[in-house]
Amino acid sequence: MLSLFALFIAQTPTQLPETVVVETRQAAPIADASPSVSRINVSEATEAGINSISRLLSTVPGIFAAEQTGEGSQSSLFLRGTNSSQSAVLLDGRRLPQGFLNGYETERYRIFGLSSVQVLRGPSSSLYGANAIGGVIDLRLPQPLIDKPHAELAIEGGSYGRASLGFNYVTNNAQGAGAATQGTAVTLTTSHDDGWRPNGKLDASTALIKSEWKLSPHLTFDLIGSADLSKARLPGSETAPTLKDFQNDDGWMLSPGFRYEDKDVQAAAFWSHGVMSMKSFTFGATHQGYELTHDEITAFADWKTRADLILGVGTTYECSRYDQRVLELNTTPYPYAKAWADTHESLGLWTHADWQATPSDRFKAALRHDTFTDFASKTTGEFSVAHKLNKELTLHAKYATAYRTPAGGELVYGTIGGVTLRPESNRGIEIGLRHEDALPNALSWTLVAFENRLTDLIDFTSTYEAYNIAQARTRGVELGLEARPAKGLRCFGSATYLETEALLTYTSLDGRPVQTGESLLARPRVNLSAGVEILPNENWTFGASFNYLRSRTDFDWTAFSRADLPNAIYYRAWVRRALGEASEVSLRIENIFGETAPPKALGYGAQPRSVYLGFTQKF
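Above: the chain sequence. Below: its structure as tokens.
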């Protein structure tokens, strides 16, 4: 039965069902996806003035994404309360280059030119291997063989020296009603921010490319590529505002691959080569350089063995080469000023099954085994069940395990007693509902309750030797909603209630005591966001949204004790005015009422009220 919301909607053009790839590595209708899967429409987000990955992800239930000092600055991504280093970031299914501590410098990327961002929350190692404890974020590029050729130019400028430029171009060789056999999508972006804090400048540029060649009706060759460059000054906290620290990053990734598809088989294989390099000057003492080279070869295939059963297998080989260099010592060396190099390899094998037992019941199971040259092997798996309560509402339940391998930055100074580190682990369980209205885009909502048990977490001694010590638990409830209750009206929002706690008492590397039962730092217990967008006619668009954070704890280094951060609510608004069929101007205002509470950490206040003007031209 159609939702009551749909009764208010005027005639709607026929639309193809939305699909997601991140959950199964194969395109599937979002109506069949777990409620822990989100698909973010980048076009809508861009029109609302959102331009960075972290600000986009902050609208997703279950994610706390915080920029340290404003737009495009260093970010932290907490998926269901896990650390930033415990979630994988992909570009069209290919793993982007990571940092020395397994994190991703997401501030180097922009969302302009992407088609969507897909998120899978919860342990996901059975398909994606390492770094999938918290989940997987997949930045999806356009489909040049299918998308209509077009070009778009976007310019924006405003407060605190903000200036950005983006150009997106999609082309293919389709003629008339014939299908394209070759297509390419290219996106170029560059931006500059002076920042509102001393030593807060940031310059960032990215290039993304996707080319596809249809070699036969069933076989396609594709080439995915990215390149990025950023030069960031690192502003100090309010108690140390005059630091001269900086971090310069650059990286690139190139990945050729093949896809095969017919009525019974879907298969893919690709090789990905990525490089991330960084030069950093920190704490007024050490100038170091880091380089990480990563190669991945992945192949997987799914067979529809009968009408109700799909079986799949896959394998992944990965090789990571670390190189840490001391470029200059300006004062007495800190212990971490050390040259170091190492190579880590791994081989993973997995299998999975998808059984549609009845028209209403679906079961999925997966098992994976990974072996490593430097760590103990790891076996992970998952089992899920979905039951359709009606045509629009589905109940899901899932149990899964995941792991994260030790990073290069955790191995530089050895381990206690030379004991080999174990991969960090997660056991997660969840139950939830997904509602997708029968009328596309009329009403969509998800509700999930989850719990993660994290073990073998890695920490350091005072001499920087690594060891497996910490344990933690995160649990909570997530709600996501999007509706179009009337023509020209879009409502959206998310809510997350999160409880976190340490399960062991220990002292961290920096001397900070951690007591059993204490909450993990920075994560808000309550994270709410909601917004509305109104299109009164074809020329005007008005939108407003807010984000509310409550019950956050950080560590006060002045008092050397835990401190509660103030609750915070940030408002933003945007207006767009079409100048014709192909051009428009826009205005957005961030932090309308000048909220000062720190969005991320103690000593780093919110970005003051800021105003930005933009112009977009489509060709």
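Residues 42-47 form the longest helix (6 residues).
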